[in-house]
Structure formats: structure tokens, C-alpha cells
From TrEMBL:
GO molecular function: DNA binding; protein heterodimerization activity; structural constituent of chromatin
Family assignment from sequence similarity: Belongs to the histone H2A family.
SMART domains recorded: H2A
Cytoplasm found in the keyword field: no
Compartments it resides in: Nucleus
Superkingdom classification of source: Eukaryota
Span list, region Disordered: 1-23
Protein name: Histone H2A
Subunit details: The nucleosome is a histone octamer containing two molecules each of H2A, H2B, H3 and H4 assembled in one H3-H4 heterotetramer and two H2A-H2B heterodimers. The octamer wraps approximately 147 bp of DNA.
GO cellular-component term (any): nucleosome
Alphabetical UniProt keywords: Chromosome, DNA-binding, Nucleosome core, Nucleus
Amino acid sequence: GGEGGEGGAGGGSAGPSVGGTAAGLGAAGFDAERLRRHIASFDPGLSVAGDAPAMMAAVLETVAAKLLRTAGDAARGSQVGRIEPQHIEQAFREDDELCEMATKHGLAAVAAPDASSM
């Protein structure tokens, strides 16, 4: 889809200035301009395409939403009124996509079953 990337190199009107609220940041509040600065800080000689930060924000929002939804289900299942670290770990273990992503990117300890809870 074309959402979020039409602003071109300048960012357009989809930036964080919408109404001065988190509405311009997306559902999870990932600020594309802040992400652009963060990406650029890894290698100052590397340029960042105008639409790359918006794409990164969309990916982070999608992963965060899935993780929070799954962790929330785990918290409700354990009848706790809040998401705790073990619910996030449980979300990684119980969701095949999250587990695969965690394993591929060096978060195997999060995705692996906790031996102390068995």
C-alpha cells in the first residue's frame, strides 16, 4: 500500500505535527522523524531515503501491536490486571511468527521456554 510514504523526501503532512498529538505518530506512537535520526546515527555517512523512516515506523507499529495483543491475552489468561515481563516472553513463545523473528534476530532467550517455570 501507499500509506505513509506519499510525503516524499520532505515527509509531507503525515509527520508528527498533526494536531500536536500522538495522532500523527501512528497507533503505537513511533515518530518517523525520530526514527530517521536514529537510523542515521548508526552510520553518519549513510543517507536515509525519505520514506524509509515511515516504513520502519509502520513495521514497528505492526510488530508492537501483535506483541501487545498476544501479551494482553496472556495477562488476561493468568487473571492479572497488567502485562508483566513473563507475559511478553509467553507471547514470543506462543506465537510462531514472533518466536521465529526473535530467534532469527538474537532474542532466542526470550523465545525459548523458561526452564524455571516448568
